[in-house]
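[STRUCTURE TOKENS]
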Amino acid sequence: MSLSLESFLSLVLPTGIVSAILTHGFALWREREKNRKETERSGRYAALRLATLLEAFAVECAKHIQRVRLHTSIPDAITEPVNELPKLLPYPDDIDWASLSVELASAVLSLPNEVNIGNDHISAYVTVLNMTDNDCGYWEECSLQCGVLGFQSWNLATQLREHCGLKYKPRLRVDWDFLGELVEQRDKYKEKNPDGAY
């Protein structure tokens, strides 16, 4: 049985085309898998870095609450003045925000604005209501803002850690329940502002 050139090409050509399509398809799939894994790795790294920043902010908020409590319960106590929220460290410039869910990235990105608004609430007691450092309302507002924003920050850090599959594990065992400090002040804020956002 002899094959003509036309018959030979009709057998080989489709096989070559199918082979080329499969080879190209496999290369595309491999590239997509590589990009997916890089995005996942980048997302986990971004989430972990942001979580540690937000956890530090939450702990500092709880420390502020303790300072206010000490100052208001023992008037002669030498305490560092608390007239604003703790500093929220700037987020790293190399964070790949697209590797996080839109909702989570939006909540984390809006936190610095909410900290600024919280500081405006605290400073309003001085500028608008003419309260001084010795007036309870001023100190109370600082504690309430620390509770609300510190707790919000801790919740965001928890969500970020869940995103990268890690749980918070304190390295030092201490008897201080800083999360309880935040919750207590946040709950007081809710009572004072039942229609407020927290």
